[in-house]
Amino acid sequence: MASATKVSILDYFNIVFEGENGKIESNCKYCGTRIQAKRSVTSNFVTHLKRKHPTMYDEFVKRKDMKREGYSSGSTLNFTANVSNVRYSVPVVTGAAAGGAAGGIGSQSSVGVVGASSGGRVTKFDKHDPRQVLISEAIAKMIVQDLQPVSMVEKEGFRALLQLLEPRYTPDSQHYIRSQLLPAYAYQAQLATRQALTSAHTLSLSLDICMDKSLCSSGFLGITCHFLTCDWQMRSALLACLFLTDISLCSQILSDFEEVCFSHNVAGRAFRVVSDAFPSAVKPCCLPGFLISPLQGSKQGDEGELILNTHNREDSIPNGHNEDFEFEESLEHGLGVCRVDCFSRSLERCVKEGLCSCPQLSPTLRKASSFYHYITSAVPAEKLNQVFDTTGLHPGSIQPVLSDWAMQLKVLHRLLDSVDFLEELSGPSELSLGTSERVLLRELTDILEPFTEAWDMVHGARQTDLLTDRHVPISLAMPCVLGLCKHLSEISAVHCSALLVGLRQAVDKLLAPLLQDPLYIIATTLDPQFKLSWSNNPDWHRQVILDELNKQSNSPNPADPSTDLQAEYPSPPAPALSPVSPLSRPCKLFSFIKQRPMTQAKSLEQELSVYLREEPTDEEALHYWRRKAIDFPQLSQMAKRVFTIPACGTVVESIFTTAECCQRACDLPKNLETLIYLKANYRLLWT
């Protein structure tokens, strides 16, 4: 074991195995290299540090010199070596002392005083030291991932924690992080995105607009690109997050959108642009009165009102319908026929309008919410886990995402399934649900259950991880709509008849038109798990597909910049032919072999016929078309296009809903734009 009077080289390694005769195996803390040696002979460790980490080696030598000088002069600085670490028995610098050690750029000194009253000194990291850079990057990643205000780095408690964990680290100022570190990361993300887009075969774009709750007319614009790589891998990247002074100015939105497209060299290449008719019509839909999170219940004047009033946005905007129509008309004119609605938002709007048409649900849902809060406080956690563990909920740690209607409905469903068990555990209470209330809530969950299933199919893993790079194509839209229409036509309701009527009207208005849209017909047919198995008139749908594919293949790509947004990205050049064998076939020697027929290119109709004759398969769509691109070259080109259109909302849309907590804390809107941009592109930078 290293002596307490010596600085050990093992301070820079993590011991992972210790055998007989003092043999040890350690991993380098900085590069992870496995080193084998004896505890008494550490030359291998010193050599590795000297060759691979010269800065760390110089620091090791300086520490040995400081230790030698400290003991020779009777210094009060004490070192306590414990195999793989060194503890400094000096007081922690906080407040002004810590703040003075970290100014802006250039204020970081290589040597700083720690514990001046004890006379001890510790060598501070150089600003280019790998360890200094690594910690600064970790702090920046924390700020981005948690959307924390940059000003937190100068808080006294945060600096005291840093000083305790790593006294040699010099904290960066918030000015340095805001003005240089975060913009540098954003620049790296932009370069990586532009480089990836240069080789993208085809792409689509999404527009997301979030309204600032503190400033009614302002908000943020997010522009996301969904593109296919040369190996049929789907990727998404946020191109820009822009602050809007007035979200009702469609001309400004289109101008910013066009500028971003040109700066990333995607102008004229977008197959479709996913954008809703009105920007702020996509607020989260919630069950009216059913507040799961205690934080929501504590904000009766804010969150509670938001949940009850999102269904009637016209109440807060004069002439809401006229403004919606004008914005939609301007958006249609600016983006042209390439604009499509987001399927998941249309699905959510159907649920929202249905709930709005049944106001008698609110009192019962409010009582169910109170009952839920009562049992989570009265019933032991181990008992509650038997009820709510299947929904991924853990009582006492409810996440903000539970304001989502689908997750609320799952909680309500589990609550109703175990209501007798929970009432028995919690004891009699005036909050207990009566028979009529249970019947009403059960009818509500039965009616909305297929909507929840469709929502889960479209969103999937993204509900638990905002940064999940999971792309769901629009080929799911057609089967979901057909299933919902069938469900609503067969189910009957006694207590929630108004809800059923409202849902039917909303589906007919928002989702049923997709059944006649050639884009959705083609997308579903080109999905190998569906093909035309869903169709009640396959001959008609087949002809629609052929007409649309012929139109797409014959349409020229306009060169006029004014029509760039409607342009199709040209098909990539045909692959080179495979080399022919250099050995020619002798005519007489191989005369017994039948002459091979000349291969002719299949027409589009022939390709479609051969494709549809194959049985549907559960193979993932992009994997299937990557494998079948040679067999169906024309169909695969169309598949490349339609599968870039997402069926669900983007990552930045989910981030917008979580950014409200730091929006008031951030000093500048520009700072929040950068944080949102980096959080959406987190996987691009740090995975």
From TrEMBL:
It is found in: Nucleus. Residues 551-581 are annotated as: Disordered. GO terms for molecular function: DNA binding; protein dimerization activity; zinc ion binding. Pfam families: Dimer_Tnp_hAT, zf-BED. The keyword Metal-binding applies. The keyword Zinc applies. Residues 28-60 form the BED-type domain. This is BED-type domain-containing protein.
